[in-house]
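[job 4417] fold queue: 2 targets
>>> target A
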Amino acid sequence: MSPEVQRLRLTFAKKEEVKHIAHLDLMRLWERALRRAEVPLARSQGYNPHPFLALAAPLPLGVTSQNELLDIILCEPMSPDLFLQRIRRQLPPGIELLEVQEVGLKLRSLPSQVRYSEYRVTMETDRPLEEIEEGLRSFLSKESLPWQHLRNGEVRRYDLRALVEDLWLLEHRDGMIVLGMRLRADSLGSGRAEQVTAALGFAQPPRAIHRTQLLLAQAQ
């Protein structure tokens, strides 16, 4: 195993051009870019050593984001500025590296720190403002909301209300609304924006879903 000497946390945007790239393909994209940039990645032991990369929370297909987090571990120290210079030239259109900062090697894994995801969800609707606001209040007033959906041929049943921390209206204009959502995203469950809009009574799926922020646990 390569020595672990430094941990960098990358903040990046995933834009329209790559919103349909799946999680595993995104990780391969980062591995290729880091290799081409000659970043000294620490690697695991065994017959098939792999670099230490940890994405905070997989992004659903078709969703864009401005605040994805990725931790990487290096076997040689590297300044964040030099890292930025090298890696930006290797990234494809649609992936924009926004920030690099050094974090402690001994911190818990990045995925284990995630608590909530925040979204901007754009919907087409002719509902009046009062009806929309009442729908949000009604949803948030519920103690529970039994829900189910079909995934990979299996019916999954759960309490949708428990996965929603908050909902709010950001915009309302002719034929269009934008909702803000803070959804749970931890080991006990992850909320999905399209399921929330269905529960709110919208028949059509969202026109666009954009993740604006990942909220991490306070104690690290």
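>>> target B
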Amino acid sequence: MPQIDSDLLASIAKSARHAGVFASVEVDGGRVVCRAEGSGEPAFYRVGEDGGAWWAELVMRDRWLSESIEATLMHAGDSIEELLDEELADVGYDGPTPKVEHFRSDDMLFTFRTRIPSADAVTAARFLLAYEQCFRNLGDMEAGDDEG
């Protein structure tokens, strides 16, 4: 199993903290884990290696939160790939439109994930921040802001 570069993860985490859009940012288990700010239920953005590739992810245990994101996309008529591509362009990524996978993982997390084309800190941070921008307004990802 390859050694994860702790300096790479620290650099990605630093960029995430600097952006100021996450409730918390940690390096945990060989990946950067950022708690979504204001989400109706706990949700986490992550960047890390899996199966020899680097991935940006949004994960949650709550089925209804995942379904609320799907419903928003269905009603809006936009594809998640197009939305992500726009957000990636906003953060300076100039590459092909990425594919977004959506599934329930073996550890029972509802997962949206995209392969990051290169394992460098700048590209990985761009994907992480684009994921947050893309998903922030979908479904109940802002529902926690209304709680009092």
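[job 4417] complete. Note on B: Residues 6-140 form a domain with the Yope Regulator; Chain: A, fold (CATH 3.30.1460).
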